[in-house]
Write a structure and sequence with these properties.
Helix content: 40-55%
CATH superfamily: Aldolase class I
CATH architecture: Alpha-Beta Barrel
Strand order of the largest sheet: 1-2-3-6-7-10-11-12
Order of helices and strands: HEHHEHHEHEEEHEHEEHEHEHEHH
Number of domains: 1
Largest sheet: 8 strands, parallel, barrel
Number of strands: 12
Strand content: 15-25%
Shape: globular
Number of helices: 13
Radius of gyration: 19 Å
Length: 310
């Protein structure tokens, strides 16, 4: 699966993943009102509004980027109706030729991780038949429980040609409370990164990169430089661009010398671009056009930064 992601990056020239993390406050009024007229101010109405909003974003950017990253919590908040939209969004993205990184951040004891892995990346047995649940191409995984929680995901990746992005150094301000703790003279995130590299050796793709990648926030570029060296075969998913403060110049060290090795995520900076002053002229009615413009600007920003590195 990592080779498909790399191929998509090379085809589009955009090492970018669009985070489909919808909030009702992002959804233009005309979309919300139409959904409420049909389904009422209900969870089903909210789900319909989110679906129509997502569809507009996907249609506007699907030719520009290789992948999307729906964050499951933004759908779970609406209960079963939200999870229906999560699944529907994944299927629509695949129809549009996009790879899907399920931002689920799962990780538990072995049997529970096995169930998560089957539901999101693999198959579940029902009598004599097998079915795919959510059917993402990649999933984010929390390694806090150790190998017991990660190995079931790795096993499914091997069986199903899927991939993982394991949390190593996250972009949020308080990540250092645990991730920066010194253990045996080194910060914990470095030890986790080395373990990710070891897991990755058992799950190499057909090329230079493993199916097991890492999550390292754009807001910590110097730590990204260190982790890039310790995980040379791991693709790095980099959240924190745009709304969280990351910019192209901060990202160059996440990439290898081949110009590959990283994919940069932006969520509300793209999907709610029309709410920013820079793109306000598009207005609510053209929210998807604003999202497309934000992707193009992000693509140029990253390309310029990488060109300057050379």
């Amino acid at each position: 699966m990592i080779e498909k992601l790399i191929s998509g990056i090379e085809k589009t020239g955009a090492p970018i993943v669009v985070g489909l993390d919808p909030m009702l406050s992002y959804v233009p009024e005309q979309i919300r009102q139409k959904a409420y007229e049909e389904f009422g101010e209900t969870l089903q109405g909210a789900g319909e509004a989110i679906w129509q909003y997502n569809k507009g974003i996907i249609d506007a950017v699907c030719d520009l980027v290789p992948a999307v990253k729906p964050q499951i919590a933004m759908y779970e908040q609406f209960g079963i109706e939200g999870l229906k939209v999560f699944h529907r969004t994944i299927q629509y993205c695949k129809e549009k030729g996009l790879l899907v990184i399920g931002d689920i951040k799962r990780g538990d004891i072995g049997s529970t991780s096995a169930a998560y892995a089957a539901g999101h990346l693999g198959r579940v047995q029902v009598g004599t038949k097998q079915y795919r649940g959510f059917d993402e191409d990649f999933a984010t995984v929390n390694p806090y429980l150790g190998s017991d929680g990660v190995n079931p995901f790795i096993q499914v990746c091997k069986e199903e040609d899927r991939g993982l992005f394991i949390l190593v150094k996250t972009s949020n301000p308080s990540s250092g409370e645990f991730q920066d703790r010194i253990t045996d003279g080194r910060p914990l995130y470095e030890l986790v990164g080395e373990q990710v590299a070891k897991w990755g050796e058992s799950c190499m793709g057909t090329g230079a990169y493993s199916e097991i990648g890492a999550v390292v926030g754009a807001t910590y570029p110097e730590m990204g430089r260190t982790l890039r060296k310790s995980m040379p075969k791991a693709y790095i998913l980099v959240p924190g661009y745009g709304a969280q403060g990351g910019k192209g110049a901060d990202l160059v060290h996440f990439f290898n010398e081949d110009g590959l090795g990283a994919i940069i995520n932006s969520s509300r900076g793209i999907i709610a671009a029309y709410q920013q002053e820079k793109y306000a002229s598009y207005g609510e009615a053209c929210y998807a056009d604003a999202a497309r413009a934000a992707v193009l600007d992000m693509k140029n920003d990253i390309a310029s930064a990488l060109a300057e590195r050379k």
